[in-house]
Amino acid sequence: MRYNTEELLKFPQELARFQSLVMVDAVTGCHVMANRKKRARFVLNEAERERTGLPKQIGARRLAYILEHGPIPESRRLYPLCGNRHCINPKHMWMRKS
Ligand SMILES: [Zn+2]
């Protein structure tokens, strides 16, 4: 099911936790989620899901991009140019039609 990533912007508490999980690689400048096993996903816990009504996982790459640049047009996808598939740094993203 599709959902709007921007929905998370309405919930400052969850948004702050997302931002606290983003680690910056001092060498490459890549931003990766603290738990890499979750790949580029922000995983909401049960309490957060209940509070927000959002799905369990939210795409971290899109979320990070929206926070930096604003809404992503429909049917656009983001690709990391740095070659790091875990990277969510908006400055390392290239956007194109899916
Ligand atoms: Zn990167």
In short:
The chain is an alpha+beta fold and 98 residues long.
Structure description:
This protein has 98 residues and is α+β, with helices and mostly antiparallel strands. It has one domain. It is built from three helices and six strands. It has a two-stranded antiparallel sheet with strand order 1-2. A two-stranded antiparallel sheet has the order 3-4. Strand 1 and strand 2 form a beta hairpin. The longest helix has 10 residues. The chain is globular and about 35 Å long. The mean pLDDT is 90. Bound molecules: zinc ion. The site of zinc ion has 8 residues, from loops.
Count of domains: 1
Going by helix content, strand content and strand pairing, the class is alpha+beta
Helical content stands at: 25-40%
The tally of strands reads 6
User: What's the story with the biggest beta sheet?
Assistant: 2 strands, antiparallel
The number of helical runs is: 3
- Uncertain segments are none
Radius of gyration, whole Å? 13 Å
Distance between the termini: 17 Å
Mean pLDDT: 90
What hetero molecules are in the model?
zinc ion
| Spatial order of the strands forming the largest sheet | 1-2
| Element order: H for helix, E for strand | HEEEHEHEE
What is the general shape? globular
Beta strand %: 15-25%
